[in-house]
Specification:
Blueprint (H helix, E strand, L loop, with lengths): L3 H29 L2 H32 L3 H21 L13 H24 L4 H23 L13 H31 L4 H7 L2 H5 L2 H12 L1 H19 L8 H28 L6 H38 L5 H7 L3 H11 L1 H43 L2 E2 L6 E2 L3
Antiparallel strand pairs: 1-2
Helix pairs in contact: 1-12, 2-7, 2-9, 2-11, 4-5, 4-12, 6-10, 6-11, 6-12, 6-15, 9-10, 9-11, 10-11, 10-15, 12-15, 13-14, 14-15
Length: 415
């Protein structure tokens, strides 16, 4: 493999495979366990899924420490082979008696819409938010998403029926998972850069630094049972609020902050995400009938993946915009070509500083670090706002009362 294009293409193929697998895992859980045991089973599923995200950072860091980057993909092949054998031996076979047709038009419209919006968010800081490519991409993406909704509403066999979001528990769970993954994946993207380029951690040490968040996901099974006692909405809202507090704490990090500061924010954020994950997932699968469990599982996974993509795009763009602006203000007097190269990333700025040398190089390096921390603070505050909005949205959906019967289209009263 000798080009980024080949890597991206192959990762796209593996992403398609993952998109086919993940919804099935939750669907199997909801089908195998009876309703009275489902909350606990979903809690375990959510805990394992969440912890797996953090463990992957640790394992990837270890592989990068002792091997080269292709080792990460080699391990993925080995794990996929092991999972394939385990699935064949252990997972019960099931089949939906009702044949579900494909919806290629809906799939293309959704991909075009999300791609257009994400491209605009990522390229906005570099090209300018009012530049023709960014505006055109955003408008085209939004039009494609509107077309997707209209197509699905009028399709006899929609890929995703928009009317499902009239079911309030379904909407609340989807909102919670999307917002939490916006925050958590955005946090990964910006925090790992901080750990490695500001604090000087190695890839392995960076993975170890986020390990305490794995322990926090032990709360997932307990949160599922807690939601059965007090209701899912309060548990989800408290979890999202805790996550927002954690990101707000991390937004105060500076160039010389200690790991204890980082740890406090990580633990708060991890505990909040663990507290909200299982009740939100269970709200999605429990709000739809047994015949729609495949759809519920797919939407749960879609919420995770969409939130992750938007989190990296949004928080990364806020970081990039803050960094570029801060560096331009702090590095006045640096030659224009050197400053333009330094604004590409913190790593580029530190390389340019090493080439300049002397007092000018040291001044540029210090300015770049301060600008990065300023952008980091803004991006983490944006993540905290997303979580806070998610908490408010979940509570509003819970207190509005009633929902919609998808078969009759009429409003149902709360039980």
């Amino acid at each position: 493999m000798d080009s980024p294009g080949a890597l991206i293409a192959l990762r796209t193929v593996s992403g398609v495979g993952a998109a086919m697998i993940m919804p099935m895992t939750l669907s199997i859980v909801t089908s195998v366990f009876p309703p009275e045991e489902r909350a606990g089973a979903v809690g375990v599923w959510a805990g394992v899924a969440g912890a797996g995200t953090f463990v992957s950072l640790l394992v990837s860091g270890a592989l990068l420490e002792f091997f080269s980057w292709p080792a990460i993909f080699a391990l993925s092949v080995a794990l996929a082979t092991l999972a394939l054998v385990g699935t064949a031996l252990l997972v019960p076979s099931s089949r939906d008696p009702e044949h579900a047709s494909l919806d290629p038009a809906g799939a293309l419209l959704s991909v075009a819409g999300i791609s257009g919006v994400v491209f605009a968010i990522i390229e906005g800081p570099a090209l300018g938010w009012t530049s023709p490519p960014v505006v055109a991409s955003f408008v085209a993406g939004m039009l494609a998403l509107v077309a997707f909704v209209l197509w699905e509403l009028h399709s006899k066999r929609p890929m995703l029926d928009p009317r499902l979001f009239l079911v309030r528990p379904f909407s609340a769970g989807t909102l919670s998972i999307t917002m939490s993954h916006v925050a958590i994946f955005g946090l990964f993207f910006v925090a790992l850069q901080y750990l490695q380029q500001i604090l000087g951690y190695s890839p392995l040490l960076s993975g170890l630094a986020v390990l305490p968040m794995v322990a926090a996901f032990a709360l997932s099974p307990a949160s599922a049972h807690l939601s059965e006692r007090v209701g899912p909405a309060p548990v989800i809202a408290v979890g999202l609020a805790l996550g927002a507090a954690g990101l707000a704490a991390l937004s105060t990090l500076g160039v010389g902050s200690s790991y204890w500061h980082v740890l406090a924010g990580f633990v708060l954020t991890g505990a909040g995400m663990a507290l909200s994950a299982a009740p939100a997932t269970n709200a999605i699968v429990a709000s739809l009938p047994q015949g729609k469990q495949g759809v519920a599982s797919a939407v749960n996974d879609l919420s995770r993946e969409l939130g992750g993509v938007l989190g990296i795009a949004i928080l990364g763009s806020v970081l990039n915009a803050g960094y570029r602006s801060g560096l331009a203000d702090a590095a006045r007097g640096v030659p224009g070509e050197a400053l333009a190269r330094a604004q590409e990333s913190l790593a580029s700025a530190l390389w340019v500083a090493s080439q300049l040398g002397g007092g000018e190089g040291e001044r540029l390096a210090n300015a770049a670090r301060e600008a990065f921390v300023g952008g980091l603070s803004a991006s983490l505050l944006a993540g905290a706002v997303f979580l806070a909005l998610g908490a408010v949205g979940v509570l509003l959906l819970a207190t509005k009362g009633g929902t919609i019967d998808l078969d009759t289209g009429k409003k149902k009263k709360k039980a």
